[in-house]
Write a structure and sequence with these properties.
Blueprint (H helix, E strand, L loop, with lengths): L11 H9 L3 H14 L2 H15 L8 H17 L12 H10 L10 H21 L28 H10 L2 H13 L3 H5 L6 E2 L4 E7 L2 E8 L4 H13 L16 H11 L3 E2 L9 E2 L4
Antiparallel strand pairs: 1-2, 2-3, 4-5
């Protein structure tokens, strides 16, 4: 009797075993069935297993990367509704990427960085299908995203002090804390959300960030530039119930999308970057 894949919640390595433990024949049959049925859950599970097993980051792939890739896999499956996933037309992959880049795309054009992420997710899906033996096709083999016309230095300009003050004026207590941690320590949003009480030393004006991208390591860094900044963060900690929820993490389930919404309330064209406040970038369109 052929083995079947059931959805399993656990660590990434535990989830990966549900595929890699299958005999080659069952792996191929289950992957082919998922492709035939266009099952987004099973196809993402297969892709995640391939990423963990053969991706460059291995089991250290970050949750944010997995979340982004899952969105990309579901998006490419929606776009591929009219084709055979196991025998895609030769130029379909290139056409898919160009539709993402189209300036007339509705509701809005996709940024160059987002196109690269979507392309990476699509490539991972077909890499997983080839790994399973269900297909030999690679519709993205010679596909490359268009070069980003915006210079990198134009995307990473920090907020001005007046804009920081405007954000702080309208922020909720925990939003104020994440703004101050980003502004004074340069933490990524995810790093701020992962803080636990023992990582913060207000007396020594230091904190320890234990998560950076997919790696897990200790990184002590200066927390405050001056005593005034220290007082502001101390007050923010108090106002946000010490900043730590029942789970011990600073913000519980922090959503960067919510933080982006806060930024958009201050100025049209402002969006949250990946390294806290110091990377919040200003749109060049006035």
């Amino acid at each position: 009797m052929a083995s079947e894949i059931k959805r399993f919640e656990g660590s990434i390595t535990e989830r990966t075993r549900t595929w890699i433990a299958l005999p080659p024949g069952d792996l191929k049959r289950n992957a082919a069935r998922a492709a035939r049925d266009r099952d987004p859950v099973q196809l993402w599970s297969l892709t995640e297993s391939w990423l963990c097993t053969y991706g460059k980051a291995g089991a250290r792939v970050s949750p944010k990367t997995l979340e982004s890739y899952e969105v990309g896999v579901r998006q490419v499956l929606a776009a591929a509704s009219a084709i055979n996933l196991l025998e895609p037309p030769r130029d379909w992959g290139a056409g898919y990427v160009r539709t993402l880049e189209d300036p007339q795309r509705v509701p809005k054009p996709m940024s160059a960085s987002s196109v690269r992420v979507r392309l990476a997710a699509a490539r991972a899906l077909w890499s997983a299908l080839r790994w399973s033996g269900a297909t030999q096709s690679d519709p993205f083999e010679f596909v490359h995203p268009a070069k980003d016309p915006t210079p990198a230095w134009e995307k990473r300009q920090p907020y001005q002090q007046s804009q920081l003050e405007a954000l702080l004026d309208i922020a909720e207590p925990r939003e104020r804390l994440i703004l101050l941690l980003g502004g004074h320590a340069g933490l990524r949003i995810a790093e701020s959300c992962a803080l636990v009480p023992e990582d913060v030393s207000l007396e020594q004006r230091q904190l320890r960030s234990v998560r950076a991208q997919a790696a897990v390591f200790n990184r002590w860094c200066p927390l405050f530039g001056n005593a005034s900044a220290a007082s502001r963060v101390r007050y923010a900690l108090v106002q946000s119930d010490q900043g730590f929820g029942n789970s011990g993490a600073a913000f519980g389930s922090c959503e960067s999308r919510d933080f982006t919404g806060l930024c958009e309330m201050v100025r049209s064209g402002v969006k949250a970057g990946s390294r806290g406040l110091v990377s919040l970038s200003l749109s060049k369109s006035r």
